[in-house]
């Protein structure tokens, strides 16, 4: 059909390309005095799941894999060594009900052994990253049967040479369990080191919770988190952190669901669970992937507080993963699950005289964690979900009317399952609906207007998991390339423009270990010592650091800019810094120069910041070797008058910050 405006634009385009010029004269009107909605402080957040070695082997800085011998094969990660090593000298025993949360331990039978006679080597999680000059903190539980023992501890480099050692005498030989620790320093760096223990002694000795941490954890907390990984999160200034997932909330079967109460309190009383990503993808098996819960709910709340993010825990709703067993708990047996949710609010916010508030205080945080929202169910669907959710909602709202409940819209952003959930949740007046989209870059480009027509009077939206799949979902060929990141940025203009209904958004998944991953793409990649942000990370960061407080219309021919000429835009007012913030995404290859016109402002003369994320190459990726290949650059630009031609390079995301006078 003939469309006059589009035809004129097409002619201009042809003319410009004929001249080799870059000018397309779109006039974008920013209505500076007409805010349409507030932007939630929680708008841009992070989604954390223990997938891709995100927690164990990643954020949780423990270097020893299978420290308490609870993996299915109890010596997974360990190798027995020594000249005097004989059958039965190193055994794993099970004390069963005597310590049901931590049943297994190592029994050593030594016969006058000294260095090199009898020992164990731990391989770490795809090796151990060891740093020259850094202090390492070793701890162990031991029980001696009459005779003292000595441990010789050795850090080994990639080739097995010793790069740090110490010895630890164990002398409480009273047949009781004791804790012992010692620190020592590495003399060299290793990217894939390991850790060896020689057992010197005579007779029987038992060992458990054999642990080794670097001392340079986040905030130097003993037994804490990898500082470089937390820093990436802190640098996003996220509005919230969603945890612990993701599918691990559901578990493949109910017995292996995530149970927060099993992740708090003493470390050795947090029963391990096999990580569902251990076996979920046959093409990326990880038989050594378990959840130690060293990073448990207390640590998640603490992390949220550290990085200034609202905590958003997601709890199991009484359903296991519907792609796996789809096990359900019967409605008659649902109460303990609901009680877990109620108790979690008490754990986070309760008075220190309450049962769960007291536990929080005993772990080191008497002040509340200010939990304001809780998710019930992850990617659950069907009437079974709604039936269970209703019971949770009634109970939570009765006891904690101010807690906002995040509800699942299932796995897909369209289709019968989605439609069913969307209408059922809206009938329930759901506070927040959690939509997920793992879709192609084109889908993201084509759906920047998705929320333009969503009702402003009903449930709020949480874009809880999204990422452009450059190949297809769950494909190992997916890339964190500029093509995907650019498409996500285009889509995110639609999220921000619709902040009146979209309250929160988070890319997923967050972390991936270069060798331990199951799922691509991911926001941040790590190896044992290094980490880098993807182009997708920098796109997220531009939106998060420059979000503003109120949405302002930015219009082309009186319409939101959502793909016309491959351009996407959103504008905001920051009432705190007194700035206009304009984001312009050019998903096309040609540089364009739209003119910004600031309606409602007398003059805008002065300087502005233009922060540009750009690559001419849609296939560009960041790597360990070139971590900043696609990363933001900043320029100062000068504005004269109340209209302003702004250069928007092909394939670029631009943030303009203009001081209001
Ligand atoms: O982010 C990876 C997985 O994708 C999450 O665990 C799940 O919620 C979704 O299907």
Concise synopsis of the structure shown:
By secondary structure, the chain is of the alpha+beta class. It contains ten helices and 35 strands.
List keywords for this structure.
661 residues, alpha+beta, eight-stranded parallel β-sheet, 10 helices, 35 strands, globular, disordered N terminus, binds alpha-L-arabinofuranose
Q: What small molecules does this complex bind?
A: alpha-L-arabinofuranose
Please, what is the average pLDDT?
Answer: 95
Q: Which structural class do the helices and strands define?
A: alpha+beta
Shape: globular
Q: Bin the strand percentage.
A: 25-35%
What summary fits the major beta sheet?
10 strands, antiparallel
Pfam families: Alpha-L-AF_C, ASD1_dom, CBM_4_9
Keywords: Glycoprotein, Hydrolase, Signal
GO molecular function, one term: alpha-L-arabinofuranosidase activity
Catalytic activity: Hydrolysis of terminal non-reducing alpha-L-arabinofuranoside residues in alpha-L-arabinosides
Structural topology:
Elements: H1 4-19, E1 27-31, E2 37-38, E3 46-47, E4 78-81, E5 90-94, E6 104-113, E7 119-122, E8 128-130, E9 135-145, E10 149-156, E11 162-170, E12 174-185, E13 190-214, H2 227-234, E14 240-243, E15 273-274, E16 290-291, H3 297-306, E17 310-315, H4 335-349, H5 355-362, E18 373-376, H6 382-399, E19 404-408, H7 416-427, E20 432-439, H8 441-446, E21 460-468, H9 482-497, E22 502-507, E23 511-513, E24 524-526, E25 531-533, H10 535-545, E26 550-552, E27 554-556, E28 559-560, E29 567-574, E30 579-586, E31 595-599, E32 606-614, E33 633-639, E34 643-645, E35 652-659
Parallel strand pairs: 1-31, 3-14, 14-17, 17-18, 18-19, 19-20, 20-21, 21-22, 23-24
Antiparallel strand pairs: 1-27, 2-26, 4-7, 5-6, 6-13, 7-13, 8-13, 9-12, 9-13, 10-11, 10-13, 15-16, 24-25, 26-29, 27-28, 29-30, 30-35, 31-34, 32-33, 32-35
Helix pairs in contact: 4-5, 9-10
């Amino acid at each position: 059909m003939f469309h006059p405006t589009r035809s004129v634009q097409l002619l201009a385009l042809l003319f410009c390309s004929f001249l080799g010029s870059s000018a397309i004269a779109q006039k974008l009107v920013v209505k500076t005095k007409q805010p349409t909605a507030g932007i939630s402080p929680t708008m841009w957040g992070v989604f954390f799941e223990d997938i891709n070695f995100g927690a164990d082997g990643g954020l949780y800085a423990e270097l020893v894999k299978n420290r308490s011998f609870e993996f299915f094969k109890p010596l997974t990660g360990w190798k027995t060594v020594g000249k005097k090593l004989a059958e039965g000298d190193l055994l794993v025993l099970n004390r069963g009900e005597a310590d049901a949360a931590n049943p297994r331990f190592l029994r050593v039978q030594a016969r006058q052994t000294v260095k090199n006679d009898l020992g164990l080597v731990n391989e770490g999680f795809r090796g151990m990253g060891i740093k020259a000059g850094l202090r390492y903190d070793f701890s162990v539980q031991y029980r001696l049967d009459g005779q003292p023992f000595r441990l010789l501890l050795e850090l080994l480099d990639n080739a097995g040479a010793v790069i740090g050692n110490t010895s630890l005498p164990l002398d409480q030989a009273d047949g009781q369990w004791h804790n012992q620790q010692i620190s020592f320093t590495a003399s060299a760096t290793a990217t894939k080191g390991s850790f060896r223990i020689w057992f010197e002694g005579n007779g029987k000795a038992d060992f458990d919770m054999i642990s080794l941490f670097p001392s340079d954890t986040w905030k130097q907390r003993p037994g804490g988190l990898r500082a470089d990984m937390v820093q990436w999160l802190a640098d996003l200034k996220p509005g919230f952190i969603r945890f612990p997932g993701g599918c691990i909330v559901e578990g493949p079967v109910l017995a292996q669901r995530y149970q927060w109460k099993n992740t708090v309190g003493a470390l050795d009383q947090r029963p391990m669970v096999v990580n569902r990503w251990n076996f979920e993808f046959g093409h990326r098996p990880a038989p050594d992937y378990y959840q130690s819960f060293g990073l448990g709910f207390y640590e998640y709340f603490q992390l949220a507080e550290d990085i200034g993010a609202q905590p958003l825990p997601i709890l199991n709703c009484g359903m296991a993963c519907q792609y796996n067993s789809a096990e359900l708990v019967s409605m008659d047996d649902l109460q303990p699950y609901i009680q877990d949710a109620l108790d979690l609010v008490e754990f986070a916010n309760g008075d220190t005289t309450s049962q769960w508030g007291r536990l929080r205080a005993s772990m080191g945080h008497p002040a509340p964690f200010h939990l304001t929202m809780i998710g019930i169910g992850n990617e659950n669907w069907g009437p079974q979900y709604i039936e269970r959710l209703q019971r949770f909602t009634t109970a939570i709202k009765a006891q904690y009317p101010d807690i906002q409940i995040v509800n699942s819209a299932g796995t897909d952003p369209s289709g019968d399952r989605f439609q069913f959930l969307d209408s059922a949740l809206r009938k329930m007046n759901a506070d927040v609906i959690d939509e997920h989209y793992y879709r192609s870059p084109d889908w993201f480009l084509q759906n920047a207007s998705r929320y333009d027509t969503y009702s402003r009077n009903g449930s709020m939206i949480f874009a809880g998991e999204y990422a452009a799949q450059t190949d297809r979902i769950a494909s190992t060929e997916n890339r964190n390339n500029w093509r995907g990141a650019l498409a996500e940025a285009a889509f995110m203009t639609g999220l921000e423009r619709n902040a009146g209904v979209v309250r929160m958004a988070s890319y997923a998944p967050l972390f991936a270990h270069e060798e331990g991953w199951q799922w691509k793409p991911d926001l941040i990649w790590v190896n044992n010592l290094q980490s880098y942000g993807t182009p997708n990370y920098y796109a997220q960061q531009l939106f998060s650091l420059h979000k503003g407080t109120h949405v302002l219309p930015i219009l082309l021919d009186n319409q939101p800019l959502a793909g016309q000429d491959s351009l996407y835009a959103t504008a905001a007012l920051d009432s705190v810094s007194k700035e206009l913030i304009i984001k312009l995404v050019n998903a096309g290859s040609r540089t364009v120069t739209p003119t910004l016109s600031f309606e409602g402002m007398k003059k805008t003369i002065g300087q502005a910041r233009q922060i540009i994320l750009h690559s001419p190459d849609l296939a560009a990726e960041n790597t360990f070797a070139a971590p900043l290949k696609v990363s933001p650059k900043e320029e100062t630009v000068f504005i004269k008058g109340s209209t302003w031609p702004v250069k928007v390079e092909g394939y670029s995301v631009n943030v303009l910050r203009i001081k209001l006078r």
